[in-house]
Structure formats: structure tokens, C-alpha cells
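Practice problem: predict the structure.
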Amino acid sequence: MTARPQIIFDNGKPAFAVIPYDEYVALTVNKAKKPKTKEDELVPFVLGDYIKNPIRVARIEAGLTQQELCQRLKVTQGYISKIEGRSFTVTASMMDRVTKAIRRKG
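Answer:
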């Protein structure tokens, strides 16, 4: 018997699906038999999903403070703050300059 799932709505949006028990068991048994790995437990954190400015993402991923980056770029900390702001449009040449500064040691 192949029954159609029953959809239960809440405030006009699908909230639950009721499926036949045999289909539920088939869906859950396959997962229960598979051995768990570390990859199953970890959810990758992508900084760029939360911070939209690529300069700020690159700086944080490099483990640098704004002060350290401003010293490498030979600009003020205030300028770094400005180019990491939400309203700043990052150009390719600016990103290239920052990338080179991050790669440079001290």
C-alpha cells in the first residue's frame, strides 16, 4: 500500500507530514545502521556566511587584528575600520592589496 503523506498546516504553512509507519521505519533504520563519524557530528562554520565584507573575513581568518593589518598596509586603524564597514564596496585591487599584506609576515 502506498499512501500519500498527510500534511498538517500551521498558520497556512506546512508544519508536519504524516507518513505510513513502514516508510518511517525505512527512513530511520538506514540511518541507525550507519556508523557515526566525526563528520556527522560537525557542522562546518563558514565565516563568510555571517560576515559579508571579504576584507574583514580575510583578516579574521588570518588571525590578525585591525591594528596589525593597518601596520602591514601602512594605513590608520580607522581606515581599516572604514574598509571593513558594511557600506564599503571592496574593489578587486583593494582585495589584492589586503591579501598580499596578510601573506606578508610582520
